[in-house]
Specification:
With 131 residues, the chain is mainly α. It has one domain: de novo design (two linked rop proteins) (Up-down Bundle). 82% of the residues lie in helices and 0% in strands. The radius of gyration is 19 Å and the shape is elongated.
Length: 131
């Protein structure tokens, strides 16, 4: 996926998370779960932007792993909101789907970078056949 499109998608996700959290019932449980979702859901885009500015392949991979973790964590908080009865599944289903799609796109990117790094390392370790 195009870097700028992914940046826009993760920012839109964050904005949707903000609106969802703002619309939660005003009680202690919703406040705690909402804060957790707000933190993780807005962190996805911030960490993706940081990955785009990574100083090395290892740095990019580390930041993309954070994107993956925060997206997965966001899905968890949404599941808790649904299963606790604080929100209906229908209300957050599109948000959950987008979060899962972002996770699904991030994982192969990490693997591709890891594989490319491994290939480059193995090439660097090759010894010349002829001396």
């Amino acid at each position: 996926m195009d870097e700028n499109l992914f940046k826009r998608r993760t920012k839109q996700l964050a904005l949707r998370v903000i609106k969802t959290v703002e619309s939660l019932p005003k009680n202690r449980t919703a406040d705690v779960l909402g804060r957790q979702l707000l933190r993780s859901g807005t962190s996805i885009g911030a960490n993706y932007r940081a990955a785009c500015r990574g100083k090395s392949t290892a740095d990019v991979i580390a930041k993309l792993r954070i994107v993956e973790e925060e997206a997965d964590e966001s899905a968890y908080w949404m599941e808790l909101l649904i299963e606790s009865g604080l929100v209906s599944e229908a209300r957050v289903s599109e948000l959950m789907q987008e979060t899962n799609e972002i996770t699904a796109m991030t994982v192969p990117s990490i693997r591709t970078l890891q594989n490319a790094t491994a290939i480059l390392r193995s090439i660097g370790n090759l010894k010349p056949v002829l001396s």
